[in-house]
Specification:
262 residues, alpha/beta, six-stranded mixed sheet, three-stranded antiparallel sheet, 9 strands, globular, binds adenosine-5'-triphosphate, cell membrane, ATPase_AAA_core, iron, ATP-binding, ABC_transporter-like_ATP-bd
Length: 262
């Protein structure tokens, strides 16, 4: 285990404003990691993302753009939560990141722009002087991005590019916080993601994941939690509302649809 425990440094303020107005944040207590894969389920709006943002800020995680959370105006609330938390590490990992689906599109566009800028500058310098040393940093940026992401994440489907990013950026011994990583993935590709997680766990990585996907929740040996009311409660796979409801629905869709449409 890389991250062992999260404890409260000081109680969360009893304030109604975001983020402390969210019950799961206000009531957050110590949390012990018991498995390399910890999964948090919960209905929309229960605060999964907000909680992960706070933990990511406390862990000094970087975003997929490699930018820190510190100083990011859109993540000021994450720093506020982090100020109340103390983390206990076995070893502080330098590998890892905090992945949010909403950062992904921005990142894909930024990488494509960076690669094109490097390519154009490289061509311009080489047209002036093919042996110029000035070209070296641009050549390095261009080739590094080509090595990491091939032709470019923007030339892949949304789901394919998610998996490309994970496979390019997961590293052994990394600590990864993934917020709804299943977003664009088909059931088959969610299984691929499970296999990737397993491969990385075998290499010492640790994952904290929020998800709505029963497939991701089924990761063998995952420590599964559900936000119920205002608390993060340990949950067995079959007890999680997403799993129960999906099973019920698939067993008899007409029962649900009759209620909805009549
Ligand atoms: N920056 C913000 N300012 C004010 N309120 C916010 C902000 N971000 C989220 N909220 C509110 O906090 C609540 C929890 O949001 P959060 O995104 O953490 O939920 P979630 O459990 O991740 O939901 P989902 O499953 O839909 O992603 C929501 O009601 C939301 O409107």
């Amino acid at each position: 285990m890389i991250l062992k425990q999260i404890r409260l440094k000081k109680p969360m303020p009893a304030e109604n404003r975001f983020p402390f107005g969210l019950p799961v944040v206000r009531e957050f207590d110590s949390f012990t990691f018991r498995s390399p894969v910890t999964i948090i389920a919960g209905d929309n709006g229960t605060g999964k993302t907000t909680l992960l943002e706070g933990i990511a800020a406390a862990a000094d995680s970087i975003l997929i753009s490699r930018e820190p959370i510190e100083g990011n105006p859109a993540l000021e609330h994450a720093r506020e939560i982090a100020d109340h938390l103390t983390l206990s590490w076995s070893v502080k990992s330098r590998n890892g990141f905090f992945f949010r689906a909403l950062d992904f599109v921005t990142y894909t566009i930024a990488v494509s722009q960076m690669r094109e800028d490097a390519r154009e500058t490289l061509e311009e310098i080489r047209s002036r002087n093919p042996r110029s040393l000035e070209a070296l940093p641009y050549a390095r940026t261009y080739h590094e991005l080509r090595n990491l992401y091939g032709e470019g994440l923007e030339f892949r489907s949304h789901g394919e590019s998610f998996l490309d990013l994970f496979s390019a950026r997961f590293r052994p011994d990394g600590f990864y916080i993934l917020d709804e990583p299943e977003a664009p993935l088909s059931p088959a590709k969610q299984l691929t993601l499970l296999a990737m997680l397993h491969e990385m766990v075998e290499e010492g990585a640790q994952f904290l994941i929020s998800t709505h996907s029963p497939i991701i929740m089924a990761y063998p040996g995952a420590d599964l939690y559900e936000i119920r009311g205002c608390r993060l409660e340990p949950a067995a796979f079959d007890e999680v509302e997403h799993v129960r409801m999906t099973k019920d629905f698939l067993n008899a869709p007409e029962r649900y649809l009759r209620h909805l449409f009549n």
